[in-house]
Amino acid sequence: TQLLEQSPQFLSIQEGENLTVYCNSSSVFSSLQWYRQEPGEGPVLLVTVVTGGEVKKLKRLTFQFGDARKDSSLHITAAQPGDTGLYLCAGGKGAQKLVFGQGTRLTINP
Amino acid sequence: ETGVTQTPRHLVMGMTNKKSLKCEQHLGHNAMYWYKQSAKKPLELMFVYNFKEQTENNSVPSRFSPECPNSSHLFLHLHTLQPEDSALYLCASSQDPAGYSYGYTFGSGTRLTVV
Questions:
Q1: Is B96 in CB contact (< 8 Å) with chain A?
Q2: Average pLDDT over residues B28-41
């Protein structure tokens, strides 16, 4: 079983602050994806990273794939209330189905 | 209509009832999935269909019965459920069965409460 551990599980910060959440595994993944899920909705894909060391930016969000392709981080700069949600990482390996982490529940307070 | 559509959005059913959840996608994807999302637990994969054929049943109890009549539609038939089956049931689709190249497109889910 390929487990993805996300940390922290819960994070509550003030608007304007920066934050980083992590996704770690002992397994190597071919790719890693980040999703955001808002209350009452399904997860929405934010990004896919496939190359070790890869960095992708999506406005104020920066995603990094670890050099060994076992971990990833999501950094948010100047967080806004609209960033509130459950952030899920998911790893893919060959023909196997995506494995999801348990998520980080982020709350940005105005 | 684009994306993945799930109906109903909310469902309350008794343990002796029979109900069905519906999912449809108009994205041209060939793979469709059912996931269960419970509080404080990772998304649990239930079933995978690829080109209408079931390719994975993740040890799901027989009280959950999937049906995929074509690549655009997926159903989850429910009967004699237990209260612990209460959860958000998510349908997803993807271009490739593994989903790791293009990711999954999820529906908004059906919030199921078993009483």
A1: no
A2: 91
| B63-115 pLDDT, tens digit each | 999 999 999 999 999 999 999 999 999 999 998 766 666 789 999 999 999 99
Q: Which residues contact A69 (CB under 8 A, 6 or more apart)?
A: A28, A29, A30, A32, A52
Q: E strands of chain B, at which residues?
A: 4-7, 10-13, 18-25, 31-37, 44-50, 53-57, 64-70, 73-79, 87-94, 105-106, 110-114
Instruction: Say if A42 is an interface residue toward chain B (CB within 8 Å).
Output: yes
**What are the backbone angles phi and psi of residue A14, rounded to the nearest 5°?**
-90, 150
Map tokens 């690829």 to a residue.
B50
Cross-chain CB nearest to A94 (options B40, B42, B98): B98
Assign A26 a pLDDT band (cuts: 50, 70, 90). very high
CA B22 to chain centre: 8
d(CA B86, CA B69): 26
The verdict on whether omega for the bond into residue A43 sits within 30 degrees of 0, i.e. cis, is no
